[in-house]
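Notes from the 1:1 (GR / supervisor)

We went over the backlog. Supervisor wanted to see one worked example end to end before approving the batch request, so GR pasted a single chain during the call. The sequence is below; no edits were made to it. Supervisor asked that the structure be written out right there so they could see what the output format looks like.
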Amino acid sequence: MIRVLLADDEAIVRAGLRMLISDEPDMEIVGEAADGNAAVRLAASLEPDLVLMDARMPALDGIAAARAIAATHPGIKVLVLTTFDEEAIVDGALRAGVAGFLLKVSPPEQLLEALREVAAGRGLLDPAVVPSVIGGYLRAPSAPPRHPALDRLTVREAEVLALVGRGLSNSEIAARLYLGETTVKTHLGRALDKLGLRDRPQAIAFAYESGLIRPGEE
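Structure output shown during the call:
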């Protein structure tokens, strides 16, 4: 059973999410918060598996709340749900340690799948925000030096990680490298373990911040 804490300042949005999630046999709502401060308090007292967090809320916004939860309860995963795909919001969410980012315009079945993916520890980025994430790194003034941790990877693991960093899905990577999708997942999982990364959002960030991908290079 996936235990979910809802955090959104709009009561009607929380009601809709509650109805959607409560109908799923493998999920339950354990609490609701109307602002970021309440979300942090309830996360500490209820210890849910996952917090479904609105990015913009009064008192303490969702990004700051996610950062506070990650600092004190790293085992609790946060999926940010928002109407905005502004680069600053996406970047702030990723740097706060969120495990997923999804737009509110996403269909219900995509939201439910995102909850399951994040709860399983795989992380998720809405495809609509991937270009914004990558664009921010591509506009960096200079590429960072190559991180020595990259030497832990095999050639194939580095190739897979680089393609993840460029925003390709597992199926797209499989087609590009002439591999099975299961093989791609295996290589990515090994790369994440070797680098101490939690999920796909962190993998994208590391691919650029480590110098594995350099802006302008194919």
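Supervisor's comment: The chain has two domains: 2-128, 141-209.
Batch request approved.
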